Amino acid sequence: MLDRIFWFFTQLKQHAFPTAASYQERFEVSSSTFKRDVAFLRDRLGAPVAYDRQRRGYFLTDASFELPPYWFDAHQLLLMHGLCRQMTQNLNSLPQEIRSFHERVKELLTMHFGPRILEAVSFENVEWADCDMRLLKTVADAILQRRILRIVYHTGYSGQTARRVVEPYRLHNYRGTWHLVAYCHYRDEPRIFMLSRMGEVEVLSRRYEGQQFDVSRFLDTAFGIYRGGVVQKAVLRFSPNIARIIRDQIWHKDQKMRMEEDGSLTLSVPIADLTEIRRHVLKYGAEVEVIEPQALRHQVREEAKRILFLYDKA
């Protein structure tokens, strides 16, 4: 149905005065199907469709009327449904506007494909941190209005509480967890804050004009969510047992891979912090060896010793 409506609406926009006969012949549908499609276009989507008796075809009484493009493509609708489901997982509740939009998308999908289509796409995150919708909305409003924020932030490892004044630039969802990319006035440098670790958030009356740094470039510099350090190269060698799996993975857009003669794989990725890359390496156990940097190699070796001690003790 969506393809038929797209074609019909395009004809209307081109002032081609499409007829019922041409519609039925093109799509091999009955007269009743044509009438239902026109009713859907007019009543559900709000298109001002009328019939011209002299030209014996249909036209738009308001030529400036437009439909959102997502109504037409079933694949786009299905993906949009999946993204809305994803947002439902990552937030306590969705804003009314998004819920209404999601209901409209589901209505269009089920009308064309039946209710089972709603289970065709899903996302799953692990180890993600929950986020309060009210907090997300407050931060989003500050970004839209370019208003400076005063936040109370709880650090993850030290357990300390810090008060910071920041310029909020972007909401960034990394592996299901919402972060704020901002310029920290205290540190006088770019910082990334997890929304789940924010306590109090106050929107100040002060505004900022331009951004102090290029957010996209900042996020693209290195592997993982941790930024701010000197960018260096991590070189990892994966065993032949797992090389084919790693070969299909993208760790970073600037990564480099090389298959070795013995079937192993060498992966090189830019890093700006050792924390996340160390955790990532450890999950592959003895199937990966850190070649460089030496600091990362040392940390992984020491962690392996602690793991061995933990299990030997048992």
From TrEMBL:
The keyword DNA-binding applies. Residues 233-308 form the WCX domain. The keyword Transport does not apply. Residues 135-203 form the WYL domain. It comes from the Bacteria. Transmembrane segments: none annotated. GO terms for molecular function: DNA binding. It holds the Pfam family WCX. Keywords: DNA-binding. InterPro entries: CBASS_pafABC_assoc_protein (IPR051534), WCX_dom (IPR057727), WYL_dom (IPR026881). This is Putative DNA-binding transcriptional regulator YafY.
